Amino acid sequence: MEATTTIKKAKQAHPPAPKKNSKVFIIVLAVLVIGGGWFGLTKYLHAQHHEETDDAQVEAGISPVIPRVSGYLKEVRVKDNQQVKKGDTLLILDDRDLRLKLEQAEAALATAQSNLVVALATTSAASANIGSSRANISTVQAQIEAAKVNVWRSTEDLRRYENLIKDHSITQQQYEQSLAAKQTSERQLQVLVQQKNQASEQTSAVASQSNVTGQQVGVANSIIKQRQVDVEDANLNLSYAVITSPADGTVSKVSIQPGQVLQAGQSTFSIVANEDVWVVANFKETQFNNMKTGQKVIIHADAFPKHDFNAVLSSFSPATGARFALLPPDNASGNFVKVVQRLPVKIEFNKNDTLVKQLRPGMNVQVDVHLD
Question: What strand order describes the sheet that includes 71-76?
Fold first, then answer.
């Protein structure tokens, strides 16, 4: 009890000092409030004149190297990450089979041309025969006309002799000679008419043969055209044995080796055109109110965080990215949940910036579109 009483007396003799208000806490709180307000104000003012997104990547033209004919790979003339120019030789296929097909096509063309020569010779002979037959017909026709004159003359002579024999002015022998002359001239006329008919039939037969040979010439010409197309096709396929670069750029990973069998249309590797790159930024549909083509764009790449890339808004996609998906959403089926869609926007770099050439397709960038 005495100890407790002593402690109470000591506390009463030395009371505790009053607490002082902490000015440091007030200053820190004021700084945080002012800083937060300033940050929010600047972000608000910035948002009134800018639209930003980090859903953006660098894009470039990527040309696949695809063989147009099947064959064994003979030689690979490029390596990974190698710079190539348009037209440079990349791959060479074994072309022996293709050369054999070309020789077969050329042989077939030579055969077709020989058949045409034979058909033309036959046509020429038929034409010559037609001319000869027509000349024969003309000759026989002239002879027929002369025979008709002889028949007329012998008929008139016989009529006169008939009158004279009645008066016994001529002998029976003279009358019979006149009658024989008339019958001979008529017989000659009949023979000439038969010869003309035979010549006409022969001419018709030769003309028919000429028509047939003319058709053969047409068929031979058609076959020659077909064989010429076969030769051109074989030459074209032979040229495909050498696979060249479709554009300037950088070779991707080359995963094929000599001796492999490449099929027509098989993708081997790609050529990336690093000289011409652009950005595809996916903006929310709620950000398009004031965006339009031609606006200035500042791009920050994660690979070069301290560098500002100047660019310009080039064009808008005709549809949202979801519409180009493998399975596009169908809001008419099932339960509908509204999701903010994103629309791809193409942004082109300023060509004067040399650092643009160091950007690679697929790199992430942050896009800031100036709406003013």
Answer: 242-244, 89-93, 71-76, 261-262
